[in-house]
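Researcher: I'm preparing a figure for a lab meeting and need a structural model of a single chain. I don't have an experimental structure, so a prediction will have to do for now. The sequence is pasted below. Please return the structure as tokens so I can convert it later.
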Amino acid sequence: MSRKRRIEERERLPEVLPPKRIQTPVSVSFRHVVQPGDAFCLSTLGQDEVREVVDCLRQLNTLTWQQILQQSGKGPRKAGLAYTLYPDHALRGVSRPAVISPDIRIAAVRASQKIRVFGVYIEHVFHILWFDRNHEIVPA
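Model: Understood. Here is the structure written out token by token.
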């Protein structure tokens, strides 16, 4: 096996779907967030919008996975963070990072009426990928 292939395999996120500890508080990771200049980077948000995202991430960081799932739902059931899973074909203007296994579904949490934070949940970590201020990634 070539050295490059070993490095790529080591950097690839594990294909673990369900969390092992549903009562474990969620951590947040910025390891796979888009780079500055990307249309869905945190730097594209205004000061008040960044504050809303930070509040959302603080809330996410204080809840367990079970509590987050209890806040999910669409339509009239939508509440709190409104954690929602999306198939890749529903995502617009973005591509799944190569290090994220196709077996892991991309999800979004609601930071405000306008803003969604997209990422993947692996074990007890929510890996942030994109910040969407205008429902462009998944149009309403």
